[in-house]
Amino acid sequence: MRIFVFSVFLIFLGSQISAQNKLYPFQDNRLPFDKRVDDLLQRLTVEEKVLLMQDVSRPIERLGIKQYNWWNEALHGVARAGLATVFPQPIGMAASFDRDALFNVFNAVSDEARAKHNYHLSQGSYGRYEGLTMWTPTINIFRDPRWGRGIETYGEDPYLTAVMGVQAVKGLQGPSNGKYDKLHACAKHFAVHSGPEWNRHSFDAANIKQRDLYETYLPAFEALVKEAKVQEVMCAYNRFEGDPCCGSDRLLQQILRKKWGFEGIVVADCGAIADFFKENAHKTHPDAASASAAAVYSGTDLDCGSSYKALTEAVKKGLIEEKDIDVSVRRLLMARFRLGEMDDQSLVPWSKISYNVVASKAHNQIALDMARKSITLLQNKNNILPLKSGGLKIAVMGPNAQDSVMQWGNYNGTPANTITILEGIKAALGPKDKLIYEQACGLVEQTLMRSAFNECSFTGKQGFRATYWNNKDRNGAPATNMQMSNPFALCTSGATVFAPKVELTDFSASYEGVFKPSKSGEVVMEFYMNGLLSLWVDGTEVKSAKTNHGSRKQTYNMKVQQGKNYDIKFYFAHNNGDAQLNFDIGYKEEANINKSIKNIAGADLVVFVGGISPSLEGEEMGVKLPGFRGGDRTDIQLPTIQRQFVKALKEAGKRVIFINCSGSPIGLADEMANSEAIVQAWYPGQAGGQAVADVLFGKYNPSGRLPITFYRDTTQLPDFENYDMAGRTYRYMQDKPLFPFGYGLSYTQFQYGNPILNQQVITNGQTIQLTVPVTNTGKRSGDEVVQVYLRKKGDATGPVKTLRDFRRLSFNAGQTQQVVFKITPKQLEWWNEQSKAMQVQSGDYELLVGKSSADEDLKMVTFTIR
Fold it and tell me: What secondary structure does DSSP assign to 261-324, as a single string?
């Protein structure tokens, strides 16, 4: 009988294990995550733990742990992974001053990220840019307009940055009341990090004032940790007070872990640990083992790079103990359990999100809404805007008028469709309107390109011969070949093959043709590519390129003689992610102002679409042009060639509307004099052209506000490498800027009444209520951004004012709203020099409320804290 019962029990137990596929407690979905983590951790060897501490985490097959790639990006849409909705660049989204709109953007982004992850899992793929840990948002303070990566931030103000950053994290990570997280976001780059790009691997942000640290550089990170419960923090490349940020005990242990209570993962920026010991970098440590041990002791859990491979050696040498490695591995495992990555996907609700959401019509509408809200009207002489169609003779000019790639910004995906500004304006015109397009000039150089693709041929047929192989080495018989008769744009986004019978991945191609120029001069070949490229001219390789982090623009210039044949061949191969290859060839021509003005003689109005481009400003770039260095800028003026064109148009009697596309402030003093209107369009994303046209023609009333001060020129700026806030941003600037923080015009007018406080004297810990009547005195509806600033009387070294709240509201024509703000003790905190902390403290204060940070736009009310 006992044998029978025991046999039945074994049969029952075996059926349960088989049904649930559980061998160990960590595989039991019914157990709490911490129990599962503890069980798994004690089963791992040191070598296996080290494998899990690298961004490309290898599988532990004996325990059934899948490989996982921690590196993914979603700065303003799922990035570097092919098809995705591309929203405006973050600096543009910050100009919306709209909390809810930003949440909607990142809720859509997280839907697309989960959908793409679900698809990749179904294909058995675990590559880079396919995971659930998104290394965004960038919440560093845009302290200097020359910083190239400022385009990734939410501007210069700590409060605005914190508010927008919190919304981005909440949209990405999803509701906090479920068993599994939707995604994990990452606050970066911790903490005192905002350029220069060119020396970031050796730069030491030293001698930072305690006030600047806690009042300017840290608040947004603290908000994301405490309010948004962000699950990852990325430490920066540079040093802070002598220590590399990823090895800073003060930043990572004393402030982040102990003071703020952060329990999530700290990830090193890619290659940052190697900077500890590399020549021409920080060189604070002798080798990878000592550097890796120091980083782990300081609290850096995950290495994006290969340095942590040396942790096994570090344990053997006694540089670090296994129990200290366990601290980091426990955090990494907990994240993977919380994301559902360790469980069967049928148990994870987020796995049900369909790929149909990717680049959907609903998400395009969100992109359009945000692009509209981001556009900032800076000047509108004689109310030239909005334009009225019907017999309008308009010329569209400028280097950014039909550049779709510019609109995508950086750290971007590939949209299904992009509406350029030229296309948006064309679509807005009526049947009686006339449009002339003239590119006129390039961004910086005195040259531009005109396509000569029709002068290329292969065996007498126009264009290039394309041959494809379903391997990366062009081996064996080709899969197919075809003639490319026009400039081409190929991309595998959305499971679209380069050609029939060609695979989506692991393929290669050759493109060959003969170029017979119709004139002598300089030609340029332009590629926008993601993959491996090799260009050959007349049997000699003249250029090669490889991308690992999404598509990049590549060019090659050469001198040609009229009538001579040039054999052109270029090879391409898939590398990782979605492959992309755009190609055109054309003549480089000198910009000719007189000729261009003659070409638009019939137009009485010019929309000049200028500015700069993400190809000029961004992360550690190799740009070698006047005014630019390593992705940063040395001059903030509009490039000379564009200034010359706008001035010449003015002198020719043309009314000019200047559209500025940039991710940073441009010195536009000359353009103010030579233009009737100035519109700041940022890098507006896939729907940017429609959004700009909607503003120009009055379909949408502009409502963007500047999230960063626009300076006149570099004479208004302190030294770029000085991290003191004195003289920087609206909070400390004494000079009058070109356009102040918070500034932006509308097609209607708003009038502010006198603000009222519910009490003039409060005690520490009380919330104060501010009420201000705001009236739309114009004849059309519009949005207003009501801004509240705080100032402490008698603080000679503190900010002249600092943002403490804002509200974006819609008004009908003639409508008055009583706008109520409840200013909490947290918002009333001010620097305490004695305690070296931000605290509510006694004293006399002023609240200033209005439409921008400029004194003339603000109304003041005083109160006292006792």
Answer: ---SEEEEPTTTTGGGTSTTS---SSSHHHHHHHHHHHT--BBSSSGGGGHHHHHHTTSS-HHH
The pairing of beta strand 239-240 with beta strand 204-205: parallel
**What one-character DSSP code corresponds to residue 251?**
I
> Which of 713, 827, 808, 667 lies closest to 94 in space, CA to CA?
808
Percent of the chain scoring above 70 in pLDDT: 97
Residue 660: phi and psi, rounded to 5, are -100, 120
Over its C-alpha atoms, the chain yields an Rg (Å, rounded) of: 29
Cβ pair 723, 452 in contact under 8 A: no
750 close to 811: Cβ distance less than 8 angstroms: yes
Distances from the Cα of 675 to the Cα of 693, 747, 748, angstroms: 18, 18, 21
pLDDT digits (tens, 9 = 90+) for 46-63: 999 999 999 999 999 999
> What pLDDT sits at residue 446?
85
Instruction: Inform me whether the pLDDT recorded for 734 exceeds 80.
Output: yes
Each residue of 474-498: b (16+ CB within 10 Å) or e?
Answer: beeebbbeeebeebbebbbbeeebb
Instruction: Tell me the CA distances in angstroms from 399 to 394, 453, 639, 769, one per residue in order.
Output: 17, 20, 11, 49
Q: Which of 752, 770, 750 is nearest to 760 (CA)?
A: 770
> Domains (ranges, CATH) in the chain?
369-446+592-732 (3.40.50.1700), 449-590 (2.60.120.260), 750-865 (2.60.40.10)
Report, as an integer, the average pLDDT of 478-494.
Answer: 87
DSSP class of residue 399? Answer: T
Give the closest residue to 746 by CA, choosing from 808, 658, 669, 790. 808
Nearest-angstrom CA–CA distance, 278 and 262: 30
How confident is residue 159, by pLDDT bands cut at 50, 70 and 90? very high
Mean pLDDT, the chain, as a whole number?
94
Of 747, 817, 731, give the one whose Cα is nearest residue 780. Answer: 747
Q: How many CA atoms lie within 13 A of 477 on its CB side?
A: 2
21 has pLDDT over 60: no
Instruction: Give residue 99's Cα distance to chain centre.
Output: 17
pTM to 2 decimal places? 0.91
Stronger pLDDT, 861 or 589, i.e. the higher one: 861
Q: Which is it for strands 521-530 and 552-560: parallel, antiparallel or unpaired?
A: antiparallel
Question: Alpha-carbon distance 521 to 561, whole Å?
Answer: 7
How far apart, in whole angstroms, are the C-alpha atoms of residue 251 and residue 190?
8
Could you identify the residue written with the tokens 């190239």?
148
Instruction: Report, as residue numbers or ranges, the catalytic residues.
Output: 269, 617
Q: Are 506 and 490 in contact (CB under 8 A)?
A: no
Phi and psi at 751, nearest 5°, equal: -120, 135
Q: Is the pLDDT of residue 339 over 90?
A: yes
SS3 47: helix
Find the farthest-apart pair of alpha carbons in the chain and give their distance in angstroms, rounded. Answer: 108
The Cα 161–Cα 223 span in angstroms is: 10
Q: Judging by beta carbons within 10 Å of its beta carbon (0-12, 13-18, 19+), is residue 771 exposed, middle or buried?
A: middle
Give yes or no for a contact between 639 and 676, defined as CB atoms under 8 angstroms apart.
Answer: no
Q: How far apart are CA 29 and CA 23, in angstroms?
A: 12
Q: What is the rounded CA–CA span in Å between residue 127 and residue 69?
A: 6
In whole angstroms, what is the distance from residue 837 CA to residue 141 CA?
Answer: 19
- The CA–CA distances, whole Å, from 255 to 157, 192, 233 equal 21, 13, 13
Dihedral sign from CA coordinates of 659, 662, 665, 669: negative
Contact 603, 397 (CB under 8 A): no
**Residue 466: is its pLDDT beyond 90?**
yes
- How many C-beta neighbours within 10 Å does residue 336 have? 24
Residue 853, SS3 per DSSP: coil
